[in-house]
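To make the argument concrete, we let one protein speak, a sequence paired with a row of structure tokens, as a model reads it:
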Amino acid sequence: MHTKANNTKKIIISLAALLAVALVFFCVYHFTKKAPVAGAKTISVEVVHGDGSRKTFEYHTDREYLGEVLKDEELVDGEESAYGLFIMTVDGETIDEADQEWWCITRGGKQLNTGADQTPIADGEDYELTFTIGY
């Protein structure tokens, strides 16, 4: 009986520690995430196609998130999911998931950890949508 009580106590302590770590990560994310900027802004979006060709678009908008701008301007099309928009088509070029193709979103050359719908924008920012093969 004494061993079972010790095991139960260890499990409860482990779960409490795991919960505490998860709470710390959530707080760090919540307090360090970039907030959307209200008001007029200008952004540029460079599309890098599968053949290596590039095309740059400049948008003037009051929207707060990249996905809103891309959809409003009809630059992208895709599938809505629980995680937001999965971009399938950019500037008329559609990926083939069977070939592990996807559109990589970067800001200033650095890959983003958010989807287009969760990416807040600010005036003067530069984004890239790059046709990518391989996961």
Remarks:
- The mean pLDDT is 88.
